[in-house]
C-alpha cells in the first residue's frame, strides 16, 4: 500500500516545521503580508497544521472555519493565491521535500481556488 501524502510529508512534527516556514513567508511576502497584519500568528499556524495534516491523510481534526467562510469578503486575487502557493513551495524546498510532494500539494491547493479567490 503506497504511503499517504501525510506520511510522505513526514507526519505532524515535520509538517509543523514546514508550516512555521510557510507562515513566516506569508508574513513577509509583500504581496500578501497585509492579509495577515491583524491575525494571531499562533492561531494561523495551528489551523494550517491541522488543515494540512487532516487534508493529507493524517489523524488530526481540522477545527478552523471552512475555506469559503474563512475567505469570504476578502476578495483574494489570483495573483495573491499564486504568491501564497509560491511561499508554500519555497518552504517545501527549504525543508527538503521532493518534487513529487511539491507537485501534489500545489495541485491540491489549486483545486481549492474556487473556495478562496474572489469571494
Automatic annotation (TrEMBL):
This is Group 1 truncated hemoglobin. Keywords: Heme, Iron, Metal-binding, Transport. GO terms for biological process: oxygen transport. Heme binds at residues 47, 71. The keyword Cell cycle does not apply. It comes from Variovorax beijingensis. The keyword Metal-binding applies. It comes from the Bacteria. It holds the Pfam family Bac_globin. InterPro entries: Globin-like_sf, Globin/Proto, Globin_bac-like_CS, Hemoglobin_trunc.
Amino acid at each position: 500500500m503506497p504511503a499517504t501524502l501525510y506520511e510522505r510529508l513526514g507526519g505532524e512534527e515535520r509538517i509543523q516545521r514546514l508550516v512555521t516556514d510557510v507562515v513566516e513567508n506569508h508574513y513577509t511576502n509583500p504581496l500578501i503580508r497585509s492579509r495577515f497584519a491583524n491575525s494571531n500568528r499562533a492561531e494561523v499556524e495551528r489551523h494550517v497544521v491541522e488543515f494540512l495534516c487532516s487534508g493529507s491523510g493524517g489523524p488530526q481534526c481540522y477545527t478552523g472555519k471552512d475555506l469559503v467562510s474563512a475567505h469570504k469578503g476578502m476578495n483574494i486575487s489570483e495573483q495573491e493565491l499564486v504568491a501564497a502557493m509560491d511561499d508554500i513551495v519555497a518552504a517545501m524546498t527549504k525543508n527538503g521535500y521532493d518534487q513529487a510532494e511539491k507537485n501534489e500539494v500545489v495541485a491540491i491547493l489549486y483545486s481549492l481556488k474556487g473556495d478562496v479567490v474572489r469571494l
